[in-house]
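User: Need the bound-state model for heme C:
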Amino acid sequence: MPRFRPFRVFLFLLLYGWVSLLWAQSDAAPEPLTAQEKDQATAARAINLLSFVAVDYPEAVVDSATRDARLYRQLQENVQVAAALLQQLPDKPGRAQLANSLQELDAIIEQMREPELVRRRANAAADRIAALYQVPRSPAEMLPPPEEAEGLYRERCSRCHGIAGRAPQPERRLDDPNRMGNFSLYDFYNALEPTREDAHGQAIDGDLSSRQRWALAVLVAGFSAPQVAPSAKLAEQFPALVGPPGAAIVRPAEIPEEAGNALRWWRAHPQQTRHLQHPLARAAGLLYLAQNAYRGGDNASAYHQLMLAMREGFAPARAELMARNPALVTQLDQQWQELRQSILDQAPANEVIEKFQRLQANVVRGREQLQPTSGAGIYGWAALLFLAALGVGLLLWYGLRRPRRG
Ligand code: HEC
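Assistant: Bound-state model below.
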C-alpha cells in the first residue's frame, strides 16, 4: 500500500499555489501596449464611430429631413471625432486622402443625402482606416461557438439588450435584421472594446478577453440570423464568406441579398460551417491571419498559423490538386517550406510578406482549379475581392516600409 507522504502533498500544494498565483498575475497585469497597438486602438475607435454612422443614419434622416435631430448631431460629431482621431495617427501615404474622404462624408451628411450613399462612404472610410493602420479584424484562431458566451450575456448584457436581443427600447434591440445586417462581426466585437467607454462602461466589458468578445459577437449575430441554414451550394458559391476572415469582416447588407442571408447564418454558426469550408479556402483564411500576425510583430502566432494552414488546409487537398495540376503542387510545397524557413530565420519583413503574398495567390489559384465550373464565376468574384483586399494591404505595407529602408 502506498504510504501517505504529507511533505510531498505540502510541496505539491505550494507549487500549485505558486503557479496559480503567477497565472492570476499574468491575467491581472496586462503588458503595456506597444506603439503599434496604441495606434490600432485609436484606429479601432474611429472605425467604431463610423460604423455607427453607417448603421444609424437612416434613423436620423428621412427624405432629406431630420427625423431625429439629436441622433443627427451625434452622427455629425462621430465623423468629426473620427477625423480628429485620424490626425492623431502617424502620417502615412494615404492618410491625407482618407482625411479628404471624411470631409466629404461630413459634407454629404450636412446635405442630408440619401442613406445608401452615406452608409457606403462611412463603411468605405472605416475599411480604409483598418487597412492603413493594420487593425486586425479577424480572430487569431477559429471563431468560438456562441454557447461559450451564453452565461456572460445573461449576466452582463440581457438587462439592457433583452433576452436574445429583444430589448424594449428600439435603439437597444440586437435582433432587427435590417439594422444588424449593416454590422460586420468585427463591428460587434469592436463595440465591446475593453479600453473604451463609449458604448459600454468598464463594468460591462472592461475585463473581457478577445475570445469572450468574439464569442459574444457570434452570439449577438445569431439574434438576427435566419432560422434555416443556407444550402451547401451557396457555400460553394461564396467560399470566402463561410469562415474568417471574410465571415468576420464583410457586412451582410453590402453584398447580394442571397449571399448576405447566408452570411448572417454562417457567422452565427461557426462550428456547423467548418466542414463546409474547402480545405484550401481554410488555408487561405489561415494564411491571411498568419500574415496579419506577422505584420503585428507576433512571429510565434504567424508561424503557428502558417503550419496550421499547411496541415489543416493544404495537406487534405494535396492529392486532389495533384491530380489536376502537379506543377502547382510542387510550387506550393516549395513556397511553404521557404516561407516557413524565412520566418524561422527572421528574414527581412518585406521579403517574408512577399512570400506570404505569392503563396496566398497560388493557394487561391489552386482553389479555383478545384472549383466545379458552375460556381466559378461567382467564386471568381469572391476571390477577386479577396485578392484586391490583399493587394491593398501589400501596397500599404510597402508604402510603410520604404521610408524606413531608405
Ligand atoms: C447599461 C446598458 C447596456 C449593457 C449592460 C450592455 N449594453 Fe450593449 N449597448 C448599449 C447601448 C445604449 C448601445 C448603443 C450605443 C450607441 O448607439 O452608441 C449598445 C450597443 C451595443 C452593440 C452595438 C450594436 C448596436 O445596436 O448599436 C452591441 C453589439 C452590444 N451593445 C452588445 C452588448 C453586449 C454583448 C453586452 C454584454 C457584454 C452589452 N451590450 C451590454 C447598452 C448596454
